[in-house]
Q: What sequence folds into this?
């Protein structure tokens, strides 16, 4: 007799024609002449993606609605319409000249999972709403004073009233509110109004997303279970100050070499990372900017100044707090030994978002039932899931292998891996009988 998992997997396999079709049309219709796709937040590309997904949902006989901010809701009714609903979603905008899967895969997976449930004649006790979120890629499209993730924060009542005027589209110079109106939406229907999504009416939120790094590719795994969305502690404009001097005439022991001192600090942070990693804790770091002054430096001059940045990321608040103590202390130690001075400035801090332990446990159970090897892993980038957590909604994420990075046209998620991730999502939704 066919098992529950076999029945559901067959349903997902049968629904994959929907996924392939939508991905193909999205890639064709939002292609950028410079390569990749461009679906600007509150622009025509994002508008087209929302129209396409809404039409696909109607063909599945789902209830289709939008809120005043333009977020899309596609709902399969459950037996009890009053029970808190499952939400599945992600965003439909992209970075300029980006990949076709970042964001869109999560929305399409939700529709494929629903189609699989319909094919398998599984009727659930509660509604399932697939959400196409607006304006997640705000770092690429909006400057000014805003808190990012504009669409999900509008839906959840987390957006500030001033952001509609202060968030400015970088390519047009016009405000978020102006672009919303141009797309047919109503900033005044969001500003100061109760949130469209009542967190008390949501049982949980799931987001399937391509991995934005190489971990799953390196491990040879199709899917991963996300433990947390990394927070960060950043030194944006740090400096090491020594003294310029003649490179041939100044003995090494008498130099105040800012480059060597900074290199020593980098080495010490790398050594500390090794300790943290060996202890099984989560930490990545990037000295993303590192430069001497081109107006002063030369081949034969002892460098007296280095400018640098440091981006520390972890899914564990305790690790970030420890590193915020370690770096200044180690800089002071190096400064005393090399007769230089570090001006680090204050850390800017964004705390990690820890995803729901019970939902993560369920996803691992699903991987076992479906025969999908998996690992726990942190997300280095931000996602709409973190806004659901901030609003008090339990949330979990599934990562799907992606060979060539994210935010680039070379994104490379295979349909086989997407199907594996969608089977896991459908299993999680279908097992709900409580």
A:
């Amino acid at each position: 007799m066919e098992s529950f998992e076999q029945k559901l997997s067959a349903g997902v396999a049968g629904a994959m024609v929907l996924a392939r079709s939508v991905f193909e049309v999205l890639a064709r219709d939002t292609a950028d002449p410079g390569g990749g796709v461009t679906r600007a937040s509150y622009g025509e590309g994002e508008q087209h993606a929302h129209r396409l997904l809404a039409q696909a949902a109607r063909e599945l006989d789902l209830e289709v609605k939008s809120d005043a901010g333009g977020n899309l809701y596609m709902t399969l009714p459950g037996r009890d319409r009053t029970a808190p609903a499952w939400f599945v979603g992600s965003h439909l905008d992209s970075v300029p000249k980006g990949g076709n899967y970042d964001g869109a895969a999560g929305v399409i997976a939700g529709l494929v999972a629903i189609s699989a449930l319909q094919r398998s004649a599984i009727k659930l006790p509660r509604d399932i709403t697939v959400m196409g979120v607006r304006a997640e890629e705000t770092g690429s499209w909006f400057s000014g004073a805003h808190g990012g993730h504009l669409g999900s924060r509008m839906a959840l009542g987390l957006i500030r009233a001033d952001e509609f005027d202060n968030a400015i589209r970088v390519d047009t110079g016009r405000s978020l509110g102006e672009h919303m109106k141009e797309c047919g939406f109503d900033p005044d229907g969001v500003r100061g109004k109760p949130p469209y999504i009542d967190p008390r009416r949501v049982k949980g939120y799931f987001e399937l997303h391509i991995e934005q790094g190489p971990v799953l590719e390196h491990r040879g795994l199709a899917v991963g279970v996300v433990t947390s969305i990394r927070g960060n502690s950043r030194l944006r404009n740090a400096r090491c100050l020594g003294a310029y001097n003649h490179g041939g005439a100044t003995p090494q022991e008498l130099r105040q070499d800012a480059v060597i001192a900074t290199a020593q600090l980098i080495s010490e942070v790398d050594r500390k990372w090794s300790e943290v990693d060996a202890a099984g804790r989560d930490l990545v770091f990037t000295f993303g900017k590192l430069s001497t002054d081109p107006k002063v430096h030369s081949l034969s001059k002892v460098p007296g100044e280095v400018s640098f940045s440091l981006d520390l990321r972890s899914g564990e608040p305790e690790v970030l707090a420890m590193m915020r103590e370690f770096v200044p202390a180690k800089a002071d130690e190096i400064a005393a030994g090399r007769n230089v001075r570090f001006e680090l400035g204050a850390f800017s801090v964004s705390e990690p978002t820890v995803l729901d332990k019970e939902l993560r446990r369920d996803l691992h159970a699903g991987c076992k039932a479906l025969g999908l090897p998996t690992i726990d892993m942190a997300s280095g980038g931000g996602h709409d899931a973190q806004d659901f957590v901030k609003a008090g909604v339990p949330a979990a994420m599934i990562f799907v292998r992606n060979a060539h990075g994210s935010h680039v046209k070379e994104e490379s998620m295979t349909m086989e891996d997407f199907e594996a991730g969608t089977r896991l999502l459908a299993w999680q939704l279908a097992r709900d009988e409580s």
